[in-house]
Amino acid sequence: MSQSGNNQKRRKLIFERTTDASVLSTFSCGIQSMDSFIHSELQNYLSMGSCEMYTVSYDSTIIGMFCLDNSTITFSEEAKNNMREGNKPKPINTSKDEDSYYWWKTSYEAKEITYFAISTEYQRHRIGSFIIESIIEKISKDDSFNGDYIIVRALNEENYSAIPFYKKCGFVPAMEERRNQNLFMYRLKNRG
């Protein structure tokens, strides 16, 4: 698929909030654990109010889905030191008083992308990256969200890892990577 073809598709994507996971009954991202969750457990999470689900459609076909949830992120002292030294992203520059208060805190408000999947036929066309950027833009413009962080738990299984994808989207590990263990990752919301 050409770059101009991808751009045309991106412009025609429709994001829609829904509370009905049955709209994903024929959806498949090709990752067995994720597909199984979407088809058998996601509706329970939605019914409990655990997250907000959105579908992404192109030409009336659902090509992606994601969920958002309010959350918090906690950094170890080592992670905070890495941020202070500039080795990892940190929030905007703050005054001395704000800065000392900021580093004293133990947890920080965050918005979590709890589930994210792209239909198999639309993978590897940069549509997933575009959707992530659109999600980040939506969160960044949300006046009701006062936090600085957007977080994910990157799926990391024996046969599949979302870690490289999220790294390309600007997320950094909040902890050390471990084989076959989901990785908690974060990035800052957009400014301005």
Summary of the model, kept short:
This protein has 192 residues and is α+β, with helices and mostly antiparallel strands.
If you had to describe this structure to a student in words, what would you say it looks like?
With 192 residues, the chain is an alpha+beta fold. The chain is built from seven helices and seven strands. The chain has helices spanning 3-11, 32-40, 42-47, 77-84, 96-104, 127-141, 163-168, and strands at residues 14-18, 52-58, 61-74, 107-118, 149-154, 172-173, 183-188.
Identify low-pLDDT runs: none
Rg calculated over all Cα atoms: 17 Å
**Shape from CA axes?**
globular
**Helix-and-strand structural type:** alpha+beta
- Overall pLDDT metric: 84
Task: Tell me the strand percentage band.
Answer: 25-35%
**Number of E strands:** 7
Describe the sheet with the most strands.
Answer: 7 strands, mixed
- How do the strands of the widest beta sheet line up side by side? 1-2-3-4-5-7-6
Report how far apart the termini are: 33 Å
User: Into which percent range does the helicity of residues fall?
Assistant: 25-40%
How many helices? 7
> What order do the helices and strands follow?
HEHHEEHHEHEHEE
Give a topology summary.
Elements: H1 3-11, E1 14-18, H2 32-40, H3 42-47, E2 52-58, E3 61-74, H4 77-84, H5 96-104, E4 107-118, H6 127-141, E5 149-154, H7 163-168, E6 172-173, E7 183-188
List keywords for this structure.
192 residues; seven-stranded mixed beta sheet; 7 helices; 27% strand
